[in-house]
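Re-run with default settings, no changes from the original entry. Doing this only to confirm the output is reproducible before filing.
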Amino acid sequence: MTFPTANEIDAAHERIRPYIHRTPVLTSKQLNLLAGAEIFLKPENLQKVGAFKARGALNAVLSLSPEERKNGIVAHSSGNHAQGVAYACQVAGIPAYIVMPENSPRVKIDAVRGYGAAVSFCENTPQARQKAADQLQHETGAVFVHPYNDYRVIAGQATAAKELIEDLDEDPDFLLCPVGGGGLLSGTALSAHYYAAGTRVIAGEPEGAADAILSFQKGEITNAPFVKTIADGLLTTLGDKTFAVIQEHVTDIVTVTDADIIETMKWIWERLKIVVEPSGVVALAAVIKYKGLFRGKKLGVILTGGNVDLGSLPF
């Protein structure tokens, strides 16, 4: 496997730059006191479509030739990748066909349709998602863009950590992000490797979807023993491409409970006045839970998304 190179990540950044926000770096003295560390937050909840997923989707779609693009794009996603692909297809002026689980948050379904995509629904299992996407691809001739197990997507996601590294005066000791399918984590790890060689990368994962930590420990892709978490964006398992990068370039994976996630989410809403979804706060929840690991260190933390169903807040 040939991982995306620094040149490919640089090219991805140039390709998507006109269509994304360069999200700011946020700091909080109260947060630094709470965690006992110097924390720099990258709020991708303020990104186009409300999540970092716009980066990978744009890079994947805009990397295709006009001939490849002409029949549109098929994707499956519970929400943020769906919105990313729908937005990327709107930018490219091509059709988007999105398969979403029937229990996807209404706010995410409405947003996907708002970008002009055609939405169809399936049972919420990986097999049902892929089967429905395969059927759509067969019917339309569209190109399938995987939510994370695609090097073009990974290179796009890597641009979030690249920006964070560029915007800090010196390289952080650690970069942290959540892990679901591993697209952001593998991209973050590659950016640290290329642009901040001394920086270690750690992922946070919900206890209720703990497949990445088991895979990391066993050295092979392993399913979670049970799946039940409020962090609905992190329910996917690793792909072979993402896992290979994670094995080589990630220092560790740690888990947090739903209670940790909810408490951190509430703290961010109350103190930082920004809207972050449960999946989006998992890395920061890990910093607070394991603060002994990070005491006195300089941390970059990616808040990954802010697409919350306001009708079902956990607090």
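Residues 151-167 form the longest helix (17 residues). The two ends are 44 Å apart (CA to CA).
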